[in-house]
Amino acid sequence: MDNMPVNIRWEIDVSRLQELDSNWRTENFAPSVRIVPFTRIYYPIEGEGYIEHCGRNYHLRKGYLFLVPPFVPTKVSCQSRLLMYWANFNAHIMDSELDIFSVVRPLYELAVSDDDDPVYRKLFEHMTKYFTMPVRSGIKLPPLADMEAIAALTLLVCPFFNSVNDREKQNIVMPGRFFKLLYYIEQHLGHNFSLRELAKQFSLNPVYLSNVFAQEMGVSLIRYCNNRRINRAIILLSNTDYTISEIAYQLGAGNSASFSRLFKRHHGLTPIEFRKSLKPPVAQRKPIKNNPK
What we know:
Number of helices: 9
Number of strands: 7
Helix content: 25-40%
């Protein structure tokens, strides 16, 4: 992963040790809650559960650490009882809102030895003592709490980065060469890109760029741009009081009607329906640090 950017901005939202029961099922969640803008890390202690994402089913049980990328369609369930540590976080790259786990493909299930189990629990404890309540709720953290918790998080996530390196050695293609392109897209989400325009920006042949991007990223370049706009819209709807028209304008949509149709096509809800289902009300939420460009 020589091309992976090293400047990652870590942000923890919430971390808990929680006991779950049969109510922990996707069908019981509000539609808006199923759209998660955070990377999630799960560490089961007792019992079992199940999770489906990225086209695979995973058995949540003791002895394994699990990672779920942001914004991916995910189903979860617990038949009886599941006690696990978990955390929501983002690892933003290059001072953008792009989470690195949206563009790299690590293993999502890693075995943890009995000898390492106490270490992993202790790392989670460094996060749970500060982040039991979501940061987005406006809680104030004591000095150095963020530093301590993020240090623990990076140690937990390190094995997943190592798994990316291992897969590269097996000649599994990675999107490292596209980080500059992805960063450029992220900084200009309000612009309606054409394939030819993006290819010219990076001195590439449009057909070559289209083919290689689709091969390495698993999605066409233009669809990737649309996905990033919709994901950015979720953050704006969740964390700001911008109107639907203002969000549509900032993300380059022609008007709020076309933006609403695109949003519903992706997530099954209109932007208004999504925002109404959020708790607490958006007026109580903190503004984001930077407006999208």
